[in-house]
Amino acid sequence: MLFSPGEAIVSDQRDSQPVHPISGMRSRGQNLGKPNLTDPLHHPEAASPALRSKRAWLFLLLTLVLPGSVQLMTDRKVVGKRALAVTLTVWALIILMLGLWLMRRTMVLSLFTNTWFLSAFALLLLSLAAGWVYLFLDTLRAIRPSLLAGKHRTLVTLCLIAAIFVTGGGLGYGAYITWVGRGALGSIFADGALNENEGRYNILLMGGDAGEDRVGRRPDSMTVVSIDASTGQAITISVPRNLQNAIFEQGSPLWSVYPEGFNCGDECILNALYPDVTANYPDLYPEAEDPGAEATMDAVSGVLGITVENYLLIDMSGFEQLVDALGGITIDVGGYVPIGGGTNELTGEPNPIDGYIEPGVQKLDGFHALWYARSREGASDYDRQARQRCVQAAMLKQLDPANVLTKFADITAAGEQVVETNIPQSGLSQLGDVALKSKDYDLIQFAAGPPYFSEDFPTYPDFDQLHAAVEKMISESAQGIAPTATTAQGGSSTSEIADTDTSTISDAVTVEPVSFRAQLASELSPNGTCSVP
To answer: Record keywords: Calcium included (predicted)?
Structure first.
């Protein structure tokens, strides 16, 4: 017998211990028969429950802020390297765009108003969304939720689902609205280039009304927005719809039809020119998409003494849909506004009154907002212009980023039906740039009628006087001087109406203050006042 019984036992135990395949040493003690796994990053099964939870939350956070890093740290290194390269590239592009925004803002705006770029950008966002979702799902695999304690397993899973919704869902929705916006830009805006005139962009805004009781479409509200191309200082000049004896810009083809101007009497008020040219003289503007709009620009240019080359027409036939897409508008109504009324142009008979919009703060849907803007019963043209400006202010207030993003598709669909323009798509970057600059200035408001001129000025206009007033106003606007009211005889008025509204459309806009009404020869009805709460 070579070994004693005790030695035999020791020898048997030693021989039964496993030998490490690399070192050749045998495991001892409590690790007997178990692999020596001490790395919780790759082997969470050997870690404590608390360490597993920390590992899971760390992986989730890394995938949120640095996609691909988890895969690089674990067993998917090839995927991790590629994902991390994409992540760093995206961050580099974002930093580059921020730098360009600070130095060459117009270049960035031109990119994001280009349909080809928007197409590529939408596809990029969609690809990033799909890739991020994949990385989150792969991170869930690496976390191994089955090893987590009950509440941590549930919380980690719920947070990962929420992260997928915010990141992948957010990028996917961004791709969707980018694609929709790309289509809207192509269908609404024209080709060509945006032109300056003496350092200004002059754009005619029109509200076209083609109701069932009317013959053709007429622009019942006309406002020229004149913007300084270098500073962004903006001026709005309201032109009364009932202005008579309108003259045209030099070189306009309208002179061949109306050599004395549009002066055939009470029927030839300014807003009647649009349907007249559309129906009878479209050949005067053979290359125009909308001859009536081109004719109106020629007339407004002649009336004001400035060249207006672009227009934006909002057709009231789709106005209801646009207001509904915005979720309605809130207005503090100044008096009872009839729904219906007025005279039917087709029959000559009075229209019935079907109800009233009551005074006070009202949330108006599209139907009631349309009637609030166009109701004629018991109101003057100046009442209607005041209400229309109030509606415009309320709509602008509704166009906050959150509202636009959540209702973008509906707003865009309505906009394609409502908006008509000859503003070129390539000029949107220039207008966007000056619009951002304009925030540094108050909006200056002016009108070719009361309170800046007497009430009978639209019937017997003095165009030389008006041209001089517009020229003086534009000159003084560069110095931040608001326009003053003038009389029909050309003298300066007293300071009684110095507080006429020249405020920006912001938190609370009061349209037509009491001092304005006091200057009119005839008293305005109560529904000529309103405000945006």
So the answer is: no
At a CB cut-off of 8 Å and minimum separation 6, what does 54 contact? none
Picking from 143, 125, 124, the residue whose alpha carbon sits closest to that of residue 62 is 143
Query: What is the pairing mode between strands 360-364 and 530-532?
Result: unpaired
CB atoms within 10 A of CB 27: 15
Average pLDDT, stretch 459-482?
84
How close are the terminal C-alpha atoms of the chain, in Å? 108
Return the DSSP state at 344.
-
Is the residue at 21 inside a domain? no
Ranges of H-type helices in 204-340: 273-280, 291-304, 319-325
* Confidence at residue 481, expressed as pLDDT on a 0 to 100 scale: 59
What integer pLDDT is reported at residue 233 of this predicted model? Answer: 87
Q: Give the DSSP letter of residue 454.
A: -
Q: Which phi and psi (to 5°) does residue 351 adopt?
A: -80, 145
For 378, residues 6+ apart whose C-beta sits below 8 A from its C-beta are 338, 341, 525, 527
Same domain, 177 and 229: no
CA–CA distances in Å: residue 397 to residues 312, 328, 347, 391, 446: 19, 11, 39, 10, 21
Q: Is residue 486 part of a domain?
A: yes
Q: What is the pTM of this model?
A: 0.68
Distance between CA atoms of 41 and 311, rounded to whole angstroms?
Answer: 64
Domain membership of residue 159 as a residue range? 44-188
Q: Are 214 and 348 in contact (CB under 8 A)?
A: no
CA-closest candidate to residue 230, choices 255, 199, 265, 197: 199
Query: What residues contact 170, with CB distance under 8 A and at least 6 apart?
Result: 129
Q: Are residues 399 and 360 in the same domain?
A: yes
Rounded to whole angstroms, the Cα distance separating 487 from 155 reads: 73
pLDDT digits (tens, 9 = 90+) for 340-390: 777 766 676 777 888 888 888 888 888 888 888 878 777 777 677 678 777
Q: What is the mean pLDDT of residues 290-310?
A: 94
pLDDT digits (tens, 9 = 90+) for 53-95: 999 999 999 999 999 999 998 888 999 999 999 999 999 999 9
Return all residues near 510 (Cβ < 8 A) that are at least 6 apart: 501, 503, 529, 531
Statement: residue 299 has pLDDT above 90: yes
Range 358-362, long-range pairs (CB < 8 A, 24+ positions): 358/333, 359/333, 359/334, 359/335, 359/526, 360/332, 360/333, 361/330, 361/331, 361/332, 361/333, 361/533, 362/330, 362/331, 362/332, 362/333
DSSP class of residue 287 equals T
Query: Residue 263, class by beta-carbon neighbours within 10 Å (0-12 exposed, 13-18 middle, 19+ buried)?
Result: exposed
If asked whether residues 245 and 125 sit together in one domain, one would say no
| Domain match, 159 and 210 both | no
**pLDDT exceeds cutoff 70 at 35:** no
| Each residue's pLDDT tens digit, 419-439 | 788 888 888 888 888 888 877
Pair type for strands 337-340 and 353-357: antiparallel
- Output the pLDDT for position 131: 95
Number of domains in the chain: 2
